[in-house]
Write a structure and sequence with these properties.
Strand order of the largest sheet: 3-4-5-6-7-8-9-10
Strand content: 5-15%
Distance between the termini: 30 Å
Number of strands: 10
Shape: globular
Number of helices: 12
Largest sheet: 8 strands, parallel
Oligomer: single chain
Helix content: 25-40%
Length: about 325
Amino acid sequence: MKQRPLGRTARQVSAIGLGTWQLGADWGAVSEEDATAVLAASADHGVTLFDTADVYGDGRSESIIGRFLAGRTDITVATKMGRRLAQEPGNYTPDNFRAWTDRSRRNLGVDTLDLVQLHCPPSAVIEDDETYEALDALVADGTIAAYGVSVETCAQALAAIARPNVTNVQIIFNPFRLKPLDEVLPAAETAGVAIFARVPLASGLLSGKYTASTTFAENDHRTYNRHGEAFDRGETFSGVDYQVGVDAAAELAVSLPEGVSLPAATLAWIASRPGVTSVIPGARNVRQATSNAEAAALLEGGFDVEAFDRLVREVYDRDLREAIHPLW
């Protein structure tokens, strides 16, 4: 597993990490035993970045990670804060930052959080000097070691990258969402800011196994948020119409050589793009966690990632570009 610099910090993180939204049971039920097995399988395969948030299962994801990592220092935990209250600029205060990070420290069982990211805050928060003054104060007193921003749009990403102490930006990037290639990845690479590519498999659409008749659990956001009913629509299937995504995934899958799965090719392609530090797919079971981590082997050769890149761009330009909201 390739290890890459985490922005301006002295840390290294794996080219393929682990997203743990699923461990909060927001994608259907996942037992703590299964969640712990996912963490163990990922770590055993060289994953050194776990991405979580204080709202995943109302802290369940953080707490499970904390119990698993008790006494371990070989894995970086990137958590997020800011969605415990309405995403309104007035709620992003130093006192709330303190309360949120203190809660995450308790959940994770640590004195200092490795990395805290603002969890898709409003643009006004990303552009406000006081936001970074409050975060710098948390670094200064040892509450957090570093901070970053998870964003919805490329404009927000560029605003965060311009800040001198931002360690990373987390943004949706996958074959259905190519806009970050234009400005965000080059800007981050120039500034020395790490990029975490989230929703890399488009909520499972790029697993290649979904069809028009696939259904999801009632408590799975892929059932209840397809049109942005609960939160930003772009978080579910990357904002792509479900059937359009199914068809595009099928076209990408048939191009692959024998033995290379669509999710593995997708993760390797994302990880190979200049400017990307780590890809953070989720996993609900050991099989998925192992498969995700093993996709890193494609970065070592044996897979023509540039041929796949050409097809990705062709499919996007023909079928997806007009289907994506202009802000994404």
